[in-house]
Amino acid sequence: MSEPINELRSRIDALDAELLKLLNQRAQLAREIGRLKNGAVYRPEREAQVLRRLKQLNGGPLSAEVVERLFVEIISACRALEQPLTVAYLGPEGTFSEESAIKRFGSSAERMPCPSIDEVFRAVESRHAHYGVVPVENSTEGAVGRTLDLLLQTPLKVCGEIMLQVHQTLLFNGDSLAEVKRVYSHPQSFAQCQQWLASNLRHAERVTAPSNAEAARLASGEPGAAAIASRRAGSRFQLKVFVENIEDDPRNTTRFLVIGPEDAGISGNDKTSLVMSATNRPGAMRDLLEPFARRQIDLTRLESRPSRTGLWEYVFYVDIKGHREEPQVATALAEVGEKASLLKILGSYPCARD
Description:
This protein has four domains: 2-81, Chorismate Mutase Domain, subunit A, CATH 1.20.59.10; 85-166 and 253-260, Periplasmic binding protein-like II (D-Maltodextrin-Binding Protein, domain 2, 3-Layer(aba) Sandwich); 169-243, D-Maltodextrin-Binding Protein, domain 2 (3-Layer(aba) Sandwich); 270-350, Alpha-Beta Plaits (2-Layer Sandwich), CATH 3.30.70. 42% of the residues lie in helices and 25% in strands. It is built from twelve helices and 15 strands. Strands 1, 2, 3, 4, 5 and 11 form a six-stranded mixed sheet that branches. Helix 11 runs antiparallel to helix 12. The two termini are 42 Å apart. Residues 273-350 form the ACT domain. The record marks 254 as: Essential for prephenate dehydratase activity.
């Protein structure tokens, strides 16, 4: 048995050496591109095209998910040779926001934890960070209102989206659930785990924290305290993974947006986000949506939000399939602009890689 194994290991060693050589050749080409081009180092549309093509070429046995994760890290390391990127996110370390930032930008990007969503926007607007990652909606609990409000106010553009399947974990250093006297977590995580908590920790006090990572930090220093957070937060604050996947819906997913100084170019599979307002008359909203329907442009999201400019006045956040520079979409947006009392294009960007 040892002879065939040794032969296979020798072939693996040779392949590893070849892979290393090819990776450095790729890194050198990326560095040369960085010297030649002007402007942004991060090109969301180009990255989406590269990953899409590699997944189509993949013949296994590696899954498409593994291939993407590997190449996100390769692209991240090569991009860092051109110019290190700083990405702001809702911190502290160990939050799902950090996890989504790593999923999109890889480990080679410098991560900047911020205490609030407002601070993430402020960090990017002030150029202390190149990009920001903010939660915008959850499949169980709906929209994140503060993100929507700031998108309307900011000059920043949406240049990407990230879909992160969120698995909630009970972190606790004790020996039994009966020992848990208090549970810390973010309000959204509590809402996502209501049934499990009612069945298993009805006796425990629930204390809200500004983030899941902060919940883990608080629980780590208090006997009898547990936290609902990510595995990453548990590792960060030396808390034991006591029960995994306690979310009520196993498909629980949070959508994050990438914000930056400009939106993305056309990738071939894009989405455009906008916010608009209709005049207060019968049929006004129908008239705003009709240009999309007539051109068979899919609406993937429609969310109302108080406008804060008057009582019972609303703005509508809309996501459509297609890039704003594509002729059909551009024509529809121009027509909507003529009818709307407010129209702001938040950005066009590649559709998320699930």
